[in-house]
Amino acid sequence: MMKIALAKGRLLDPSIKLFESLGYDLRGARDSRKLVIDDAAHGARFLIAKPMDVPIYVEYGAADAGIVGQDALREGSVNVYEPLVLDYGHCRLVVAGKPEYQNAEWRLLAGLRVATKYPRVTRQYFTARGLSSEIIEVYGSVELAPMVGLADLIVDVVDTGRTLRENGLVELDEIFKSQAAFIVNRAAHTLRVDEIRGLIEKIDGTRTNADERG
Ligand code: AMP
Known about the structure:
Largest sheet: 6 strands, mixed
Mean pLDDT: 93
Distance between the termini: 35 Å
Structural class: alpha/beta
Order of helices and strands: EHEEHEHEEEHEHEHEEHH
Low-confidence stretches: none
CATH superfamily of the largest domain: Periplasmic binding protein-like II
Helix content: 25-40%
Bound molecules: adenosine monophosphate
CATH class of the largest domain: Alpha Beta
Number of strands: 11
Shape: elongated
CATH topology of the largest domain: D-Maltodextrin-Binding Protein, domain 2
Strand content: 25-35%
Radius of gyration: 19 Å
Number of domains: 2
C-alpha cells in the first residue's frame, strides 16, 4: 500500500477533493476522529495528521508521500523530496505587533518577546537581523499573546489578515509566502519510482486541467 499523509486543518478539505478528483475513495476522511482511511482498490492508505507532523512522517518513511503547507516544511527543516507545489493553502508567514511598532526601527525591536508556533523560522529571522529576541513557543491563538502581555510581537501565518485586524495587530514584515506542497520520502521516491511518478503526473494533471479551464 502507498501511505499518504494529509495535513489536518485548512488543507484537509482541498486535499481530499484533489484525491477524490483522481478517483480515490476518501469517504470517512472528513470524520475528525478517523486517522486512517484505506482505499484498497487503489492500494492507498491515507493518514490524517497534524500539519507539523506530516513532514516528519514522510521523512521517516511512516508515509511514502504527503500534502502539507510549505510553512510546516520550512519550520520542520526535513529532508524530503518536494516535487510539486499545489494551487491551494496560500498564506504568508509574517511578523506582527501592536500599531506602535509599525514604523519602529528594527534595532528598537531588540530584546522584545516574540510568540509563535514557528520557533525555528522565527529564530533564524531575528538572528539574521542581529536581534536577540526572546522566542516563546505557543501552540495556538498566537494573536492573543500581545493582548495579555505575554509577548510584544508575534510570528504567524495570515491569509486575509482579518484575525490580525480583529485583535488590534498590524503586519510589520513578511517572512515568506506559503502554499500546499506534495512531498515524497526520498527512499520511496527511488524504490517505488513508477508508482510515485504516476501519482505526481496525475496530481500535476489536475492542475493543468484547472489551468486550461481558466
Ligand atoms: P486570516 O484571518 O484569514 O488572516 O487567517 C489567519 C488565521 O488563520 C491565523 O490564526 C492562522 O493561524 C490561520 N491560517 C491562515 N492561513 C492558514 C493556512 N494556510 N494554514 C493554516 N492556518 C492558516
